[in-house]
TrEMBL record:
Record's protein name: Outer membrane murein-binding lipoprotein Lpp
Record-linked PROSITE patterns: PROKAR_LIPOPROTEIN, SLH
Domain of life the protein comes from: Bacteria
Cross-referenced InterPro entries: Cell_Envelope_Struct_Comp, SLH_dom
Keyword Plastid: no
Keywords: Lipoprotein, Signal
Protein source organism: Geomicrobium sediminis
Domain SLH: 68-131, 132-192, 193-248
Length: 248
């Protein structure tokens, strides 16, 4: 009796979700349904209800995203980098993932950074130029982008020449890359700014000063956190401020 009741309840749910049922008519059903048949029907209807609920949830998310002007399900309009992420997305500079997420809190790696820079600047490179970094094979997804940024001096390898494309981009490395990539937007400056964790003469000190002088960072007088990994949302903020003064 309980099995039959559940079957009827699930059938009703499907009728509400689909408007009609593809099940056989009552005349085609056995007069006395055995438990095995009932359980089989329950499993089938359970599967259909689950699928319909998932489709309904996805549709609701899509409608909400469209109405709010969002490109990603995990970046809502209250996010501090929402406008910058949407701006870079509209320019085709950044992309999300196949599941419609942007994953703003994830670290951006060096290979992804190379792709964004090369894409925005439309960098080109001679066909016969071979990437000098020994740790990146031609089959790597960012090989061509890394080849371009290396050729133009935007990104180089470390002391042993390795590009480390899968390593997270640190905030100090981000400062250096942006200054090299956008010298007109981030000009040299003689102004000196102070930070609680960045000493004069240290790696990226000059570049961070240039970012501050251009109004791209507001960390003056506080900690810049040079060794901290750069998140995808933070890179979107800095990149937008660099290429568009309206975001500074």
């Amino acid at each position: 009796m309980k099995a039959h009741s559940k079957l009827l309840a699930l059938t009703g749910s499907l009728l509400m979700l689909y408007g009609c049922s593809s099940s056989a008519t009552a005349d085609e059903q056995p007069e006395v349904a055995g438990d095995s048949w009932v359980n089989s029907e329950i499993r089938e209807l359970d599967s259909k209800v689950t699928e319909a609920e998932a489709r309904t949830e996805q549709l609701s998310q899509d409608i909400a995203m469209i109405s709010e002007g969002r490109s990603f399900i995990d970046v809502d309009v209250q996010h501090n980098a929402f406008h910058e992420i949407e701006y870079l997305t509209s320019l085709g500079i950044i992309n999300g993932y196949s599941d419609q997420t942007f994953r703003p809190s994830n670290s951006i790696n060096r290979g992804q950074t190379a792709a964004m820079i090369a894409r925005h600047l439309s960098l080109t490179v001679p066909d016969d130029y071979v990437l000098q970094a020994p740790d990146v094979s031609k089959s790597h997804q960012n090989y061509d982008d890394l080849r371009k940024v290396e050729y133009h001096g935007v990104m180089t390898g470390n002391n042993d020449g390795h590009m480390n494309p899968s390593n997270p981009l640190t905030r100090s490395q981000m400062a250096v890359v942006l200054v090299r990539a956008f010298p007109d937007e981030i000009p040299e400056t003689s102004n000196q700014y102070t930070y609680t964790d960045l000493r004069e003469g240290s790696f990226s000190y000059d570049q961070v000063n240039q970012l501050a002088d251009a109004g791209i960072t507001n960390r003056v007088g506080t900690a810049f956190r040079p060794s901290e990994h750069t998140t995808r949302s933070h890179f979107a903020l800095f990149m937008s401020r660099t290429i568009n003064e309206d975001y500074r």
